[in-house]
């Protein structure tokens, strides 16, 4: 019984260390079949879709990573990314920041400092 108490305390510590309460901004990135949808829960009603740019329109750009709309964020903030997937597995990446998130069909949460 003592081992069960230690195990439950360890699992609690794993999850509590992952929680940050002083977040500056939260963004929900919904991975759909062929596009991403961005939502900002604090800014009511701010939802936008981001579609991939076709290869013929991407001169001097990174193929399959360029989008028709950029998600702009302020710097020097703690940003929470909530990334659920609705249908298939996705990868959300920002190569210049070194951020790559593998998205499975559940809510994934990531905290980054920009």
From TrEMBL:
Report domain Cytochrome oxidase subunit II copper A binding positions: 22-114
Q: Sorted alphabetically, which Pfam families does this protein's record hold?
A: COX2
Keywords from UniProt, A to Z, are:
Magnesium
An example Gene Ontology CC term for this record: membrane
Names of the cofactor(s): Cu cation
Top-rank taxon: Eukaryota
MF terms from GO for this chain are:
copper ion binding; cytochrome-c oxidase activity
Q: Show the catalytic activity.
A: 4 Fe(II)-[cytochrome c] + O2 + 8 H(+)(in) = 4 Fe(III)-[cytochrome c] + 2 H2O + 4 H(+)(out)
The protein here is known as: Cytochrome oxidase subunit II copper A binding domain-containing protein
The record lists the organism as: Lepeophtheirus salmonis
The gene that this protein is the product of is COX2
């Amino acid at each position: 019984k003592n081992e069960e108490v230690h195990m439950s305390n360890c699992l609690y510590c794993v999850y509590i260390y992952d929680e940050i309460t002083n977040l500056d901004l939260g963004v929900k990135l919904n991975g759909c079949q062929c596009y991403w949808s961005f939502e900002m829960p604090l800014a009511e009603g701010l939802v936008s879709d981001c579609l991939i740019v076709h290869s013929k329109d991407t001169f001097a750009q990174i193929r399959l990573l360029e989008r028709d709309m950029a998600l702009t964020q302020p710097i020097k903030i703690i940003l929470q990314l909530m990334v659920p997937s609705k249908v298939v597995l996705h990868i959300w990446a920002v190569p210049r920041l070194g951020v790559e998130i593998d998205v499975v069909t559940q809510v994934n949460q990531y905290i980054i400092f920009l």
